[in-house]
Amino acid sequence: MHNKTIAELAQGLHQKQFSSLELTTHFLQRIQEHNKRLNAFVTITDELALAQAKEADDRLSSGQSNTLTGIPIAQKDIFCTQGVRTSCGSKMLDNFIAPYNATVVERFNQAGAVMLGKLNMDEFAMGSSNETSYYGPVKNPWDVGAVPGGSSGGSAAAVASRIAPGATGTDTGGSIRQPAAFCGITGLKPTYGLVSRWGMIAFASSLDQGGPMARTAEDCALMLQTMAGFDEKDSTSVNRPVADFSATLNDSLQGLRIGLPKEFFGEGLDHDIAKLIHEAVAEYEKLGATVKEVSLPNMNLSGPAYYVVAPAECSSNLARFDGVRYGHRCENPKDLADLYTRSRGEGFGAEVKRRILIGTYVLSAGYYDAYYLKAQKIRRLISDDFKQAFQEVDVIMGPTSPSVAFRFGEKSADPISMYLSDIYTIAVNLAGLPGMSLPVGFSKNLPVGMQIIGDYFSESRLLNVAHEYQQVTGWHDKAPAEF
Amino acid sequence: MSLSTAEVNKIAWLGRIAIDADKIEAYARDLSGILDFVEQMSVLDTSAVAPMAHPMDQAQRLRLDLVTEADQRELFQANSPSVEAGLFLVPKVIE
């Protein structure tokens, strides 16, 4: 049952081949069996899941169901879940019981989906390896000595190991796409504003975006259909009609114009990965696509601009954790200043502290123009580069990450080398564009992901492009042998 | 760009984060490295470029100034480390 996709499971539920209760019980058993090794879940909501499964079965038999009714999914622990601990991978929120549901969670509930539990992640989504989680790192199901990527590492590992059919993720600089690539699954970071950020604990508000992570593009389309749409509670939510993402999955790719940015294939890219990306692109040519080189000349500045914008917004957002209203409070504070500084010093891990400090510095008096304003200007140039490219091509393709999953400890001592594992994904967030990662092969027995970037609100096209590839290749069907 | 330990202490205070004295130097090194990395931005002349705050240059939506939320004080205060009579408790601020 766990080898089926969400689309296949939905069919099975609607044809009464099995009930949601049976399905949910099966996945809960698999979590029980494998989570100790993987550390993908930080909270397993088994009682809630079984209750939701029974409700879903009622809905299925009364005909009041939709595609996701009765489908078990798991939520990244950044999404607030009413009555369930929402830790964001941090000691700061280890004791935080969310008083309300994130809009994304609410939408899955309304669809009748079942929540298996909450997934491990880099602390406050700051990290690319899951090593910054307060709950210890998630392991990569393909090689438990390798990182799963981050920050949505728990989501990627859970889907890859078939202990959850689908999971939510969030992506501020690559946190859906890079772990999807490292774990051999499919993930989509939507256009900024398509998925509500309400109840999704904020890291860098002008970049954060939630999205689906699943085995196939078809499954991502089903999940995105539930997640996407205007939300009055999110002031940056974009009010426009939501496309039917499944309707165009099988559209022909005849005449599709693919752009390969030369900056994505330069120095620093693993040779095997470059070869696999070119093979995948050749597959698209067989499907009728044309390929041309494009240029994103300011791409090399996306990392530096990101590491100003993201920490600046992080320092501002994380100011709310004060040890007073919720979250960790230090023992015996001697005065209010001591309460603030020690609660925050104890509650946050090293990487979060580094980012708050960098953000505080770049926003402090006298530095704003040189750093934050400068970065916002570079953001415009990067966005203009993409606009230029999309006048000539429909989608941009390239690697998701310069290497396959690295070893634990390999980059954790050097923040910059860790930051560089997101060099191909960051520009997409700065521009607010949608991007996907899908599996296109293996190098050193570890999965390789290809990134597809589209113009604003082109999610239907991206999913279609990924789906057609998955109809003629089998990389997305590969499962790690140990799970 | 090299930050001194005194500067790190100042930033840590501005960010209200206590850092153990024996770790200040490591932070100074890491933060200096990150600032060197972002310094690459200065190679580009951006004097004629308008800053971008929102990917679609969308303005913040406004709403009518109406009460739309119900009072859920007890629910929200249930997560607080210290509450009494509907108030958040902190160490004495005024002598």
Q: What would the keywords be for this entry?
A:
heterodimer; A: 483 residues; alpha/beta; Amidase signature (AS) enzymes; eight-stranded mixed beta sheet; 11 strands; 39% helix; B: 95 residues; two-stranded antiparallel ribbon; 32% helix; flat
The total beta strand count of chain B reads: 2
Side by side, the strands of the main sheet of chain B go 1-2
Low-confidence stretches of chain B: none
Give the N-terminus to C-terminus distance of chain A in angstroms: 13 Å
SSE pattern of chain A, N- to C-terminal: HHEHEHEHEHEEHEHEHHHHEHHEEH
Major sheet of chain B:
2 strands, antiparallel
Number of strands of chain A: 11
**CATH evolutionary superfamily of the domain at 6-255 in chain A:** Amidase signature (AS) domain
Oligomeric state as shown: heterodimer
The chain pair with the largest interface is:
A-B, 72 and 53 residues
Average pLDDT for all residues of chain B:
92
Strand order of the largest sheet of chain A: 4-6-5-10-11-9-7-8
Rounded to an integer in angstroms, the radius of gyration calculated over CA atoms of chain B is 22 Å
In CATH terms, what is the architecture of the domain at 6-255 in chain A? Alpha-Beta Complex
- Give the helix proportion of chain A (percent range): 25-40%
Count of separate DSSP helical elements of chain A: 15
> Could you name the CATH topology of the domain at 6-255 in chain A?
Amidase signature (AS) enzymes
Strand residue percentage of chain B: under 5%
